[in-house]
Design brief:
274 residues; alpha+beta; Arc Repressor Mutant, subunit A; Beta-Lactamase; 3-stranded antiparallel beta sheet; 40% helix
Length: 274
């Protein structure tokens, strides 16, 4: 590499143990989160004895866990990158996780926050266009007719939810759109109980979406993740079976990131209109 772009490190400045520790951390991947001592030693290019010392140090400091046979990293490692993440917005924070999910499902995936009676898109990974609406960061859609909106509304206290549903505009976008407040209340309560929401052809004909909530460390629903599917492609049950496990895993990963950000995540949240 051009020396103009990489400062030279002298022998006195180079910390070999830190370099080895970083290689041990880099041994773990999303595809293989659990590794044996031998696997870590091989991947990091170190001896078993060195790898063992590094791993036990990580366990002692709370960055790794072992069941006595394998090792895995804990969410605490996310805190190592807090200085990097804290200066970035939702799109940059969520794009890696949503990108992996989109590639896995071969579908477009999005994240949104609740802003008043609407959802606002804060991250989107696009595959192919199946909606007439051109969705971009900052796009807002009615919460009552979207899967993300329903899991976000499900995070409200029941009394507040009822008030919101009676006060908000309830436009019928298709023949399937639910506009009755009592029926909306019922399906949103069901979404709260199930831990996910499915909306079938209520926003657009031929469009199905599945969404899951993302909570912060105090149990508050702060984001929703979803994927959009052509309803002609498969049945609703098949869509759930195919997409829900991946959505739940992605939500769990985002929740770990939010917990690692701690109080700094507050700057990313839009104040709620009561």
């Amino acid at each position: 590499m051009d020396q103009d772009h990489e400062p030279a490190v002298t022998r006195n400045e180079f910390v070999r143990s830190l370099s080895t520790g970083l290689k041990v951390l880099e041994s773990f991947t999303a595809a293989e989160p659990k590794l044996s001592l031998s696997e870590v030693a091989r991947r990091s290019g170190t001896s078993r004895a060195t790898a063992r010392r590094m791993l036990l140090t990580l366990v002692h400091e709370g960055y790794a866990f072992t069941d006595g046979r394998t090792f895995e990293l804990t969410p605490k490692v996310l805190g190592l990158g807090q200085g990097y993440w804290s200066g970035r917005g939702w799109h940059e924070l969520l794009q890696p996780s949503l990108g992996d999910l989109s590639a896995q499902l071969a579908e477009s995936c999005s994240a949104a926050q609740l802003v008043g009676d609407e959802v606002m898109y804060v991250c989107r990974v696009h595959t192919r266009r199946i909606m007439r609406i051109d969705l971009a960061l900052g796009t807002k859609l009615p919460a009552s007719v979207t899967s993300m909106g329903r899991v976000l509304l499900a995070g409200l206290e029941d009394e507040q939810l009822v008030q919101r549903l009676h006060a908000m505009p309830r436009t019928a976008f298709t023949r399937s759109t639910i506009t009755d407040p009592a029926q909306l209340h019922q399906v949103i309560r069901q979404a709260r109980q199930d831990g996910y929401a499915v909306v079938d052809e209520e926003l657009e004909e031929g469009l199905r979406s599945v969404a899951v909530p993302v909570t912060d460390g105090r149990g508050n629903t702060v984001l929703a993740l979803n994927t959009s599917i052509s309803s002609a492609k498969e049945t609703t049950a098949e869509s759930l079976q195919r997409t829900l496990p991946g959505l739940l895993r992605c939500a769990a990963a985002v929740e770990e990131l939010i917990q690692a950000l701690g109080d700094d995540v507050g700057r990313l949240l839009v104040p709620q209109v009561q």
